[in-house]
Amino acid sequence: MSSLVHGFGRFQEALFGRLAYLDGLGPLALRLYLVPVFWMAGTQKIAGMENTIEWFGNAEYGLGLPFPAVLAYLAAYSEAIGALLLLLGLATRWISIPLIVTMLVAIFAVHWGNGWAAIADSSAPEVAQRLGAARELLRDHGNYTWLTEKGSFVILNNGIEFAVTYLVMLLTLLFTGGGRYVSVDYYLGRLLNR
């Protein structure tokens, strides 16, 4: 048994040992995935800041948060500047913290009441009924073929799925940093440790 375990260990080391040289690719992939997500979210909030503040503060149709102007500016600029910092891999761990807070607010204040799924299950009877009605309306009064030539028509459920996914990615970056060889953080760290 001991020789089997030892043999497996040598096999695993031979197979995966050299991957350590490429361990910066994982954090790089996470950062590059998150850049457009946060860039679009942040710049859209900034472009419509009056509406963003109103949505943050209004309890009837928005989030009903206290200090909506302060929180709207903090969220918008954390996302936009955070996207740029993630792109460079600069202050990756630091910017992950306000982005994690932003995702937690999104999860609990925006998406929580809608369950897990971001896109509704089209096989559920009530969703299938709505999809059928929407398709019929679009076929009769719209250009259904044009609308669906790039993908299927779906109903957005607006659940926590995407926000939790981004949260997990940000938590990973908080613990790993920007990645070896592929981030400004890595080279700053080497410079500071000399």
What does this structure look like?
Helix content is about 70%, strand content about 0%. It is built from 9 helices and no strands. Helix 3 packs across helix 4 (about 70-90). The longest helix has 23 residues, at about 25-45. The protein is extended. It starts with a helix and ends with a helix. The mean pLDDT is about 95. Keywords: Cell membrane, Membrane, Transmembrane, Transmembrane helix. This is DoxX family protein. InterPro entries: DoxX, DoxX-like_oxidoreductase.
Short note summarizing the structure:
By secondary structure, the protein is mostly helical. It has helices spanning 2-16, 25-47, 49-57, 68-88, 92-111, 125-141, 144-148, 161-176, 184-192.
Characteristics:
194 residues, membrane, cell membrane, transmembrane, mainly alpha, 70% helix, single chain
The string of secondary-structure elements, in order, is HHHHHHHHH
Rg (C-alpha, Å): 22 Å
Q: Which structural class fits the helix and strand makeup?
A: mainly alpha
Q: Report on the biggest sheet.
A: none
Helix content: 55-70%
Number of helices: 9
Low-pLDDT windows of residues: none
**What distance separates the N and C termini?**
46 Å
SS elements, strand count: 0
Q: How would you describe the shape?
A: extended
Report strand %.
under 5%
Mean pLDDT: 94
InterPro entries: DoxX (IPR032808), DoxX-like_oxidoreductase (IPR051907)
Membrane topology: Multi-pass membrane protein
Protein name: DoxX family protein
Pfam families: DoxX
